[in-house]
# Entry
Amino acid sequence: MVPLLTLVATVFANFGGIVMPEIETKNEWARGLKGVNLFHNSMSNCSQRTRVALEEKEVSWTSHHLDIAKDEHATDAYQSINPNGVVPTLVHDGRTIIESIDIISYVDEIGHGPSLVPDTDDLRAELDAQLTTAGDTQGAIKVLSHEFLFKPVRKMNDKQLAALRATHGNRDLIAFHEEFSKGFSDERLASVVKEFADAFDRLEGLLQSHGGPWLLGTQFTLVDIAWIVNVHRLDLMRFDFRHWPALKAWLGRMQQRPSYKNGLEKWEPKGILRFFGLYSRLRSLFGGGVNAYIRK
Ligand SMILES: N[C@@H](CCC(=O)N[C@@H](CS)C(=O)NCC(=O)O)C(=O)O
# Structure
């Protein structure tokens, strides 16, 4: 879960038995911040995950919103807080945690209410596996989001790419935007859709074998929070869930939770959602939407 870039700066903190990466931020101001502070973006799926966890665990937090379209994540100041220059970053009384999956585990430890981690070994092993898969699908959701939702507004021209290269230290991020500006191949799109189809098969199986209502059964867990943001993102693309009916029903239940409404829905600008709806419809009609890549 920790990109190579941050390994040098990573120390491992043992918090309530969970080992999670905590970085030593170089930013003096951030080190002096009190309480729980989240550096995030309204539409970023990784940020949504952390906001849902904060809501679920009733943790009060201070918002530091970064406009990714304006490259606010590429400033020296932000990169001195999170050397990967991506959101989210959680700073809690000077401790800095990066990686959304690690952040939600941390929030579960510091927050209120019942634990979001099951206490049997089997379910805990499943939770670990599902958190890892949810985190690992970030590359795939990024490709799909940029292709099927953000394309008309987020594709960079040569000048914008040059500006990002000059300011941003994360080579993987730059390589991604270079690839996106050239256009993803059909093979690449088919392979990332397959990654989701395979992951959804597993989630569908979990819902059926445990009997719901949540992914690991009767207990609402971090797995529900980790996955909701990606399932929601595909739903925005008008992804056809016909092969995953239990997952679709789970999405409906998740959408009723106050943590979803306050941590995710409330932050998504309505104008952008209307634009995504229109663009997805047009892509389905003329350009081949995401469903053209489902092989079942
Ligand atoms: N593995 C990281 C991924 C973080 C990440 O990729 N964040 C995206 C938003 S979801 C970002 O900051 N992107 C900046 C960009 O695309 O320029 C996590 O889970 O926190």
